[in-house]
From TrEMBL:
It comes from the Archaea. It comes from candidate division MSBL1 archaeon SCGC-AAA259A05. InterPro entries: Metal_resp_DNA-bind_regulator, Tscrpt_reg_PadR_N, WH-like_DNA-bd_sf, WH_DNA-bd_sf. This is PadR family transcriptional regulator. SUPFAM superfamilies: Winged helix' DNA-binding domain.
Length: 110
């Protein structure tokens, strides 16, 4: 169905805004971020996708990662950078503009 495909595209294939939004609130490690996406947005991103997106965000300096030992186990905690905050703002602006263009007069047309 078209709506299921749209949901998949705006979730799994567009994971970075979700991750940046959560990292804006507080630093977190990868598994914790997957859990928070589920808690806050109602879906669980695939494990491999999560790590791939985090790697790309870090490589492009939208986030930074710091290894910390927690309960004897090393975990990489991610934190959003100023560049990441700017990207999130650009994403918000894009989605607001898209929403207005697609739906602003929909009630009048239907």
């Amino acid at each position: 169905m078209p709506i299921e495909r749209l949901k998949k595209k705006t979730r799994e294939e567009l994971l970075w805004p979700y991750l940046l939004k959560l990292l804006l609130i507080e630093p977190a490690y990868a598994y914790e971020l997957r859990k928070k996406v589920n808690e806050n947005f109602g879906w669980k991103p695939p494990l491999t996708t999560s790590y791939t997106v985090l790697y790309r965000l870090e490589r492009k300096e939208y986030i930074t990662g710091t290894w910390e030992k927690e309960k004897g186990r090393p975990r990489k905690y991610y934190q959003i950078t100023d560049k990441g905050e700017d990207l999130l703002k650009e994403g918000r602006s894009y989605f607001k503009d898209l929403q207005e263009k697609l739906f602003e007069d929909l009630d009048q047309l239907i």
